[in-house]
Amino acid sequence: MILSMDADHLLTAREVATLLHLSTPSVLRRWRAGELPGFRLSSNVLRFRGSEIDAYLEAHRGPTPVYARVPNSHEEG
Questions:
Q1: Is residue 3 part of a domain?
Q2: What is the mean pLDDT of each run of 10 residues along the chain (77 residues)?
Q3: Could you tell me how far CA 43 lies from the centroid of its own chain?
Q4: CB atoms < 10 A from the CB of 28, how many?
Q5: Distance between CA atoms of residues 44 and 24, nearest Å
Q6: What is the rounded distance in angstroms from the CA atom of residue 19 to the CA atom of residue 3?
Q7: What is the pTM assigned to this prediction?
Q8: How far apart are CA 32 and CA 62, in angstroms?
Q9: How many domains does the chain divide into?
Q10: 39-42, strands of its sheet edge to edge
Q11: Three-state SS for 33?
Q12: Domain membership flag for residue 75
């Protein structure tokens, strides 16, 4: 899901912010709160694994709206 990148590609907070349509400070706040998975490589270097961001997005996905569902063969269409 992370735009055709290798799923284990390491992303910066700015790249994650762009993908999630958030500000960089929001990403950092969510990471500090334990909401976003990421890890610190050094005192000034924070990275996020693309596959973990994908998993975060899937875990926070809302229900599919009724108008977007494909009727199954047992429903009248």
A1: no
A2: 63 96 96 94 94 90 75 59
A3: 24
A4: 17
A5: 14
A6: 9
A7: 0.71
A8: 24
A9: 1
A10: 10-11, 45-49, 39-42
A11: coil
A12: no
Match 């990471």 to its residue by tokens.
31
Query: Residue with structure tokens 């909401």?
Result: 35
Q: Residue 1: which of 42, 54, 39 has the closest Cα?
A: 54
Q: What is the pLDDT of residue 33?
A: 96
Query: What's the chain's Rg over C-alpha atoms?
Result: 16
Domain membership of residue 50 (yes or no) is yes
The whole-number pLDDT of residue 63 equals 82
Separation between Cα atoms, residue 34 and residue 9, nearest integer Å: 20
Cβ atoms of 9 and 54 within 8 Å: the answer is: no
Q: What is the per-residue pLDDT for 6?
A: 63
Q: At 53, is the secondary structure helix, strand, or coil? A: helix
Q: Domain limits at 32?
A: 11-62
The answer to whether position 4 is within a domain reads: no
